[in-house]
Specification:
Strand order of the largest sheet: 4-5-1-6-8-7
Number of domains: 2
CATH topology of the largest domain: Formiminotransferase-cyclodeaminase, Chain B, domain 1
CATH superfamily of the largest domain: Formiminotransferase, N-terminal subdomain
Structural class: alpha+beta
Strand content: 25-35%
Largest sheet: 6 strands, mixed
Helix content: 25-40%
CATH architecture of the largest domain: 2-Layer Sandwich
CATH class of the largest domain: Alpha Beta
Shape: globular
Number of helices: 8
Distance between the termini: 22 Å
Order of helices and strands: EHEEEEHEHEHEEHEEEEEHEHH
Length: 329
């Protein structure tokens, strides 16, 4: 990622909350990251709010310096926990918490792995202390010393089950999970992009087949790509978490476009481009006579996130999600 003095200490948190149908509520949560009793929180911006009605899930992209991110995120989480009751939640996307996921990603080259791990652990601790009854599990760099990935930790916690057994869960922080707040995943890792491709069918079995084929864990799958197939707006969405992997473009995939890359602590990372994922899904669906309806990025690529954050902060735009369409046109 290109260097600038403003961007060297930046981190992003793609805060996942279990509400999308009350958009004003989600905006209230986003604004809690930006403002305190003294006014606007310095050096913090919300770049994007992605709402999905069927999933009843929103992703709020918060960016600040590594020194400021903790308070911004905790303030948003406190507000979300006060407004969202998991006892009343419905939606087709798996989830376990009112605040379901708090991932912290480094954007700037002066942010170290340990910085992100430390802040993630502090956020998890702060959440369980400030909001009595909340519980958390750790993943990625924050999960010391094992550093288990998000997908593994979610599987261990029962996140993928339709009705998780909260009484069987042993959180890393906080009490036994309560129905109102559920369980929150908190961690740090290289940037994870979300890329969703919709196929024009209601055949969920076909969706599962495609998801299995492109998933990283399948021989010949795409490195770093974790996949779910979910019913969505009368079709099927192939919902991909695109994790950044160490090194440059995998050797067996060099025939296409180079994978976007960046460095953290001197280590090179890259991620599968959205165009490759879309093409692979389209190819697999096409073999079954089904087309695709479109692709959606939840937020940004790592490079876009850094660039837009620098723009927003240099111009003092806190509520950037309201401006980004005008600025990017």
């Amino acid at each position: 990622m290109a260097s600038s003095s403003l961007g060297r200490r930046l981190v992003a948190c793609l805060l996942n909350v279990s509400e999308a149908r009350r958009k004003e509520l989600v905006e209230t949560v986003a604004k809690a990251a930006l403002y305190n009793t003294e006014g606007k929180r310095k050096g913090t911006t919300v770049l994007n709010i992605f709402n999905d009605h069927d999933y009843n899930r929103s992703v709020i992209t918060i960016v600040a310096s590594i020194d400021s991110i903790r308070e911004a995120v905790l303030s948003a989480c406190e507000k979300a926990c006060g407004l969202i009751d998991m006892c009343a939640h419905t939606g087709v996307h798996p989830c376990m918490g009112a605040v379901d996921l708090i991932p912290i990603y480094p954007l700037g080259e002066e942010v170290r792995v340990e910085d992100c791990a430390k802040e993630a652990r502090a956020v998890a601790q702060g959440l369980t202390e400030r909001v009595q009854g909340t519980s958390a599990f750790l993943f990625g760099w924050a999960d010391s010393p094992l550093q288990r990935g998000l997908a593994q930790r979610r599987k261990e916690m029962g996140w993928f089950k339709k009705t998780p057994d909260l009484q069987a869960i042993r959180p890393d922080l906080g009490p036994q999970p309560q129905r109102r707040f559920g369980l929150t995943g908190v961690g740090a890792s290289p940037y994870v992009m979300n890329c969703n491709v919709t196929i024009n069918t209601q055949d969920i079995a076909m969706g599962h087949s495609i998801a299995t084929t492109i998933r990283e864990s399948t021989p010949g799958g795409l490195p770093g790509v974790q996949v779910l197939a979910l019913p969505h707006e009368g079709a099927v969405e192939i919902a991909c978490n695109v994790e950044s992997v160490k090194g440059s473009t995998p050797s067996h995939l060099t025939a296409g476009e180079p994978w976007p890359s960046f460095s953290i602590d001197g280590q090179l990372y890259c991620h599968a481009p959205a165009s490759l994922i879309t093409a692979r899904v389209a190819e697999l669906a096409g073999r079954k006579g089904v087309g695709t309806k479109g692709m959606a990025l939840v937020g940004f690529t790592p490079r876009e996130c850094r660039g837009l954050a620098e723009l927003a902060l240099s111009e003092g735009i806190a509520e950037f999600w309201k401006e980004q369409r005008r600025i990017r046109m």
